[in-house]
Amino acid sequence: MGVNARRMRRLLRGLLPAAHGAGPLLQRDYWAVIQGCRLTPPEVATLVASRFWEFAPEDLVAFRRVDDTTEPLEVGDELEVWIRMSGTVRVRVVHRDRNSLTLATLIGHPEAGRITFGAYRNDYGDVIFHIRSRARAGSSLRYLGFLTAGDPMQTNTWTEFVNRVALTAGDGVLGYIHADTRKIAGAVDGPRAMLSPTFIAEGE
Q1: Which of 66, 74, 92, 125 has the highest Cβ tally under 10 A?
Q2: CA-to-CA distance for 127 and 173, rounded, in angstroms?
Q3: In this structure, what are the phi and psi dihedrals at residue 40, rounded to the nearest 5 degrees?
């Protein structure tokens, strides 16, 4: 078995892909233009990888690096996540490039899927920070809570994350934070899809 195959097996070990979850596959998008952004899109991505735990609203969710280091997050790193009403679970970094970072859920998480945090420019040259998750309930037992409490909690968590990144990288959000949820029809994401981002953040 080659090095890449062994690395892939390590990354896949313990993941909870959407295909192993329950209920509809939901794609949730949260994004905003950063007003007066002082960083390039790759620099915003590095900021998020370096200070990820600082941008989440602590009353809803708290992140802690498992290895307790202060280095930027890289592929293979894991975060311990405290989620209100769900307890403590873990996620793993499964993809990182110049403009984005992707986390995937591990077994025991209330959701099955992955989430990407990325930055890019629009047609006017403004920097956009964008979060997109693709997930289902982690199990049939969690399905009802995923649909009822999951949506508002996700929205509150990730819109605040976007807001805090915008305030750190620039002068806050220009206008408002866009939030959208839609069901994805057809085949759900399997294990190999878990190692790819939920969207491609291009440029620079």
Answers
A1: 92
A2: 10
A3: -80, 165
**What is the tens place of the pLDDT at every residue in 56-113?**
999 999 999 999 888 999 999 999 999 887 789 999 999 999 999 999 999 999 899 9
**Residue recorded with tokens 């090095």:** 3
Domains and CATH numbers, the chain: 3-195 (3.30.530.20)
Q: How far apart are CA 115 and CA 94, in angstroms?
A: 10
Residues in Cβ contact with 123 at an 8 Å cutoff, skipping those fewer than 6 apart = none
**How many beta carbons lie within 10 A of that of residue 56, not counting itself?**
18
Please state, in angstroms and rounded to a whole number, the distance separating the CA atoms of residues 117 and 71.
18
Full-model pTM = 0.94
**What's the CA gap between 88 and 11, in Å, rounded?**
20
Residues 177 and 190: their CA atoms lie apart, in Å, by 30
pLDDT in tens, 111-149: 999 999 999 999 999 999 999 999 988 776 655 665 555
Write the DSSP assignment of 23-63 as a string of letters.
EEEEEEEEEEEETT--S-HHHHHHHHHHHGGGSS-TTTEEE
62 is written with which tokens?
């708290």
